[in-house]
Specification:
Oligomer: single chain
GO biological process, one term: superoxide anion generation
Protein name: Ferric reductase NAD binding domain-containing protein
Number of strands: 5
InterPro entries: Fe_red_NAD-bd_6 (IPR013121), FNR_nucleotide-bd (IPR039261), RBOH/FRE (IPR050369)
GO molecular function: superoxide-generating NAD(P)H oxidase activity
Strand content: 15-25%
Largest sheet: 3 strands, parallel
Pfam families: NAD_binding_6
């Protein structure tokens, strides 16, 4: 991870240069964990990325975001009948008062429950930062069961799928 961060410190956010150099234009970092404490080891790095992006975005409001973080905390199940209404109220109130997520202290909100891969993948190719399906690469390190599900979604959306063994 250190080598990735070392290179990322030199990211050139100039959109024209990124496109011309064939470099990475956008990252959607998706992390699914059972326990919110499992996020802790990477939070400082994610916080630095959020701060760097904020520092760049403030004087350049027309530029697209370079990094979007999607964190999913699966330990608390989403009740079909009531959802997570009490928890949602607490987390939204916390975010309004503190300005960050109650679980991670990031600006990014932690989602409760499993990801809806169809909805998430659809957003990747349909928002203002959208790439073509051919430009999307999904890298997975995780359980084989989740990997099979994600691979199926990648095939459906024509995303490139890579899995670490």
């Amino acid at each position: 991870m250190c080598s990735i961060y070392f290179r990322c410190q030199r990211v050139n956010y100039n959109k024209k240069d990124l496109a011309e150099n064939g470099q990475l234009l956008k990252i959607d970092f998706i992390w699914v964990n059972h326990d919110h404490k499992s996020f802790e080891w990477l939070l400082n790095l994610l916080r630095q990325f959020e701060e760097e992006q904020e520092t760049y975005s403030t004087p350049n409001p027309g530029e697209n975001r370079f990094l979007d973080i999607h964190l999913f905390f699966t330990q608390i199940k989403n009740d079909e009948n009531i959802g997570n209404v009490p928890l949602d109220v607490v987390t939204k109130t916390w975010a309004q008062v503190a300005g960050n997520d109650i679980f991670t202290s990031l600006r990014t909100k932690t989602q409760i429950g499993r990801s809806n891969w169809t909805e998430l993948f659809d957003r990747l190719i349909s928002n203002e930062n959208a790439s073509t399906a051919d430009d999307v690469n999904v890298f997975l390190r995780g359980s084989p069961i989740m990997g099979n599900s994600i691979r199926e979604h990648c095939e459906k959306f024509r995303f490139h799928f890579f899995k670490e063994f």
